[in-house]
Amino acid sequence: MTWALVKAVMLGLAIIVIYFAWTTLSQTGSQGSVCEVPIVVEVLNGCGVGGIAREVGEVLVDQGCDVMFVGNADDFDHRETLVVDRSGDRSKAHTVASVLPGSGVIYQVSSAFFVDVTVVVGNDLAGGIR
User: How far is CA 83 from the centre of its chain?
Assistant: First the structure.
């Protein structure tokens, strides 16, 4: 086999792999997702249960949200999960809240945040969301 033929075969395989990866990812994101428009979210652990913010973030990603940050809140005294509107588009906050059982929505719009929605996970989801 010549070097040109090897390169052509490798390029063809790469295109096939990219095509199947693209179609798989696009199908995964669209099936059963709640977020029809891009919603950029940060998830903060407000109850102190290890890994709960990551778990909630994974659920939101599965629903089509763009989770940009997962970390801890300033304190772990939150009894109830809060969904905070940061962008002024209340529909985005309510869409995220629809995924999290019993969460309340509050409005604290600020250009200082680079997300549409902040989720502060409270003790009500400490047992897990899945």
Answer: 13
